[in-house]
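ok so dumb question maybe but i'm new to this and my supervisor (M.) told me to 'just get the structure for PX domain-containing protein kinase-like protein' and walked off. so i did the thing. is this what she meant?? sequence i used:
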Amino acid sequence: MALFEQTETTTKVTLDDTEACCCTIETAQTIDGHTEYVLRVQRGPYPENSWRILRRYNDFASLNKCLQISGIDLSFPGKKLIGNMRPDFIAERLNALQEYINQVLMNPILASSLPTKKFIDPDSYSTPFHDLALQYASMSLRTDGVYTLGQSLGPIGWRLRKHYFKVVHKPQGNKHSPGHSTTKHHLIKSSSQSHGKQHTTQVCVTTSTEKDYNTSTRDHSGRDDLILSWTEFGPDRYIDEKEIHTVLKNFGGVQHPYIVPIEHIASNDSGALVIRKFYKQGSLKDVLCSASPCNPFLSKYGSPKGRAPLPLKDLALYARQILEAIRFLHSKGMACGHVHCGNVIVVDGIAKLMDVENFIFGVPSFYRPFFVQHSKINTCEAIDVYGFGHLLYEMCMGYPLQDSYARQISDCPDSLKSLLESILSKDACKSSLPTLDQLTTHPFFGEYAGHFNDLYATTMTVQKPHLKFSTSAKEQLKLAVQKTENRVREEQRSVKNQKRLVRVQEMMTSEEEKKKIKQKAKHEQKQAKLRAQNSLQLNNGPPATGSGITASVHLSSSTGGIVKSDSANSITSPQEALMSPPPHATDSGGSTSPQPPPSAPPIPGPPSSLPLFPPAVPDLASSASASGKLAKSISGDESTGGGSGNRSALLESICNFNKSGLKKISPTEAGK
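this is what came out, is it supposed to look like this??
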């Protein structure tokens, strides 16, 4: 009887849970007396991989309640009972909710949590992952006479498709089949049972741990406590389904002083389980954050209260040990791809790497959103070097690097700063990273871990490393490495093309904005010219309504002024104004009509405008005002002879000017 009976064949699409998502609240709509917000969510760099969902304010509030366990301060808008349907309030709340969801998605810990994933992508993350893991793990251990599945440890890790359970050895008194051994062995399962039952789960995720699993590392029989992890296969699982059981069987016997050994490993078509020893101190990340390993991931690492960097000698020793473990895996044709503080255990001063089987499972790397932004980090070795750089940074600073490269590195010795900059600086990520062999010869390790080579040689004599793959397994691993690197390069090209497209769009937008600004400036210049012309016309008086003869303002001959006309081309001197003949009206035949007799001189009035040049002597102006002032020549209708009459009156005024009213002054007084 097969352990897993396949009852249904379905096409499964494996998502990359590390792929970044962005969310935009497009609009708000009122439905049945409440407000619903339309959210457009995009996964990855391409806009076509997007969808729309409807969310109410209560949905945002439920998400915020689940994320409060992290201790991260988020700006969430408060609830309002009165006036919450006003358009201005809805617009204000929309902006506040947009700012809130941006804060959530920009934080790697919050963005990778199950409540956030369910909120923005309910179709993909409504599957009961925990129930499926419990079912597969139970079925895998049911006929095995060695282990008993215990309680769930809850979401203690960051992966949504990886679940942890307590597991213990079965009592020795149980009956076993003849020849059955209770010693460590590796079971490989080859069939699966589909899970067709779907459940609707709450957005909020809580741990199911009922008692502290940290107080003791031994069960009642005196054996070490064990932990079981069930992991679904990821998008980078390129090993053939028929060969993966052989590869896992070979890998289950790995032995290395700096790699955590595997107690038990088994797999089916959906995923695999691994049993290891449980360490009560937790991972290196738990040590740095002073966190309990069995607490939920959000509460442990969201906002840890205590962070402490490692001493330089311990940092150098642990880093050198992890570096040797990575080199050993690469020497066997296998990459790690998952180097970070959460996958490092420190036992009795020895750092050990664990979860190295994740490469075989094809699950995405923790730092994948970072290194896909740099096209030079495109090999498995470069990815491990990059992860090793982040590991060094967190051990040195006490907190993780939240960006794809380090903008500034300080508060560390020069040798360590040089090592970090060779991996995490912007120039290093853009050019090329050092190799694993080059890292081992860096001066930092010689300065703070100079005795490591002798220590490593002694350790190798006690526990010799062992990892042997069959020929077919080696071919499968080689093919998996190539396909993994190809997918990384393809995703890096997509990210690069999308960034280029965004820059082009920004340039086009800026050019359009520049054109609009230029057009607006031209329009304003035209309006300014029109205003200036209108102001000039108002100051000079309205234009005449006759045959086009313009009105002119003449200065007194005694001041030597000029004649200013409303016409742009009409500027004449007083002599030209006096000597020019008066205009004559002409009939349709071109004959000159007789000029009417001059009319009586008009009574002089005040000038309509000030002279262009003031009089040189004040007394001259006062005496001249008694008999003659500036005259205003107004064009008249040629048909009535008004123009010639005004001209004659002006000439008569000038002729009757009384010179006796002028007062002589000395040159010295004129100079004053």
